[in-house]
Amino acid sequence: MGVSNKWEPVVTNAAVNLRLAEINDLDALERIELSCFDSDRLSRRRMRYWIKAEHGILLVAETESEVLGYGLVILRRGSRSARLYSLAVLAKARGQNIAPALLIKLEEMVLSAEKLFIRLEVAEDNLAAIRMYKKLGYRKFGIYRQYYATGVDALRFQKPVLHPNMANAMKHYPWYKQTTAFTCGPSALMMAMKHVRGGTPLDQTTEIDIWRQATTVFMTSGHGGCHPLGLALAGHQRGFAVEVYSTQINDLFLDGVRSEHKKSIMRIVEKDFIERATNAQIPIYQREIELSEIETALNKGYGVICLISTYQFHGIKAPHWVVITHADDRCLYLHDPDGSEGFYDESGNRLDRSSHANIDEREDADLDYQHLPILKQDFGSLSVFGKTKLRTCLLVKPNE
């Protein structure tokens, strides 16, 4: 990408104007593309398409006499995320902070379109662009190997555009990254318990111990995930008062399991959970929790964990436990324990969490899984799983 080699505070030349691209800008946009990129260029036909497209924002920076640069953001259909597709500034105009100004204006427009994130790819050897993105609050969360025609890898960056407005208003909430692919439930419960009572340990021993107590034994593949009643029992055993809200109590997660033998084992485990939760007098409400009840619980300092489907995040339908940390007028905010999503090895395969030592600046990725903003109108479709439309949520309270 063509950007300034030195990032500075965003103070553009007063003579530079930012506006949406028009059809008569095509010649200028084509000149910029040819000047700034040796490969992976946008064609004139694609430029024309994005000028007209309703799901794209093509912004140009111009003086009275010339268009000097542009930025293109694609608004993903069916998602609250946007993608910075291209950003380019003519060499003669660099050093005037045009690239950062374009990006900041695009962020404002993305937020106005009710998108919550911007993601982008940048060549790993484009150090000037990487510095600029980091200065503007973007964090690396993954890598695409040999992404560009030149064979260069692309680093993946992300920024929650709503998050900076809330950063100062939100109090600290403990965050823990799950260490296996199947312990999102224990990790979410640990964060909630730590929030309610500070002495709760956040370590792998506790994580695995809770999983052993709460697992359904089997799932669609691999190790079993955690049943809401199993997690409630684990919290109860550790001295917390736990309430369970679930639209379904029996036969959870069975619709994705083909083996009748596995289903029979899961039913045995589930029956035991129900009996022990009943004996422990754990409140079980067989209904969906209301948003107002979640907000009331948060205001009282309770922990709130919820089962979601990961389809809207990753395009893969899987049950996943998260923590709801805060709420405001527009959004709920989530801590997602699966902080390694998006990292890939040399062959393009997703890295296992045991490979974290091989990931540079991995702490940057962790930031993108804390206080994840979700519009309230999206929470209903996010917090439902499976053919049975399961909705389940746990409130974790001090045991008074």
Instruction: Supply Rg.
Output: 24 Å
Q: What is the number of helical segments per DSSP (H or I, 4+ residues)?
A: 13
CATH architecture of the largest domain: Alpha-Beta Complex
Percentage of residues in DSSP E strands: 15-25%
Strand order of the largest sheet: 1-2-3-4-5-7-6
Q: Would you tell me which CATH topology of the largest domain applies?
A: Cathepsin B, Chain A
The CATH superfamily name of the largest domain is Cysteine proteinases
Average pLDDT level:
84
Structure classification: alpha+beta
Question: How far is it from the N-terminal to the C-terminal residue, by CA?
Answer: 58 Å
Order of helices and strands: EHHEEEHEHEEHHHHEHEHEHEEHEHE
**What number of structural domains do the residues give?**
2
Tally of DSSP β-strands:
14
Query: Which percent range fits the helix content?
Result: 25-40%
Q: List unreliable stretches of 5+ residues.
A: 1-12, 341-365
Please report the first level of CATH classification, the CATH class of the largest domain: Alpha Beta
Q: How would you describe the shape?
A: elongated
Q: Oligomer, anyone?
A: single chain
Largest sheet: 7 strands, mixed
Organism: Alteromonas hispanica
Domain N-acetyltransferase: 16-162
Protein name: GNAT family N-acetyltransferase
GO molecular function, one term: acyltransferase activity, transferring groups other than amino-acyl groups
Can you put this structure into words, describing what you see?
The protein is α+β, with helices and mostly antiparallel strands and 400 residues long. The protein folds into 2 domains: 17-161, Aminopeptidase, CATH 3.40.630; 184-398, Cysteine proteinases (Cathepsin B, Chain A), CATH 3.90.70.10. Helix content is 32%, strand content 22%. The protein is built from 13 helices and 14 strands. It has helices spanning 26-36, 44-52, 98-112, 127-135, 163-166, 184-196, 204-214, 228-237, 260-279, 291-299, 311-314, 362-367, 376-382, and strands at residues 17-20, 56-62, 67-75, 81-89, 117-123, 139-144, 154-160, 240-246, 284-285, 303-309, 319-327, 331-335, 372-375, 392-398. The strands form 2 sheets. The protein has a 7-stranded mixed beta sheet with strand order 1-2-3-4-5-7-6, sandwiched between helices. A 7-stranded mixed beta sheet has the order 9-8-14-10-11-12-13, sandwiched between helices. Strand 4 (81-89), helix 3 and strand 5 form a beta-alpha-beta unit. The longest helix is centred in the last third of the chain and has 20 residues, at 260-279. The chain is elongated, with a radius of gyration of 24 Å. Residues 1-12 and 341-365 have low confidence and may be disordered.
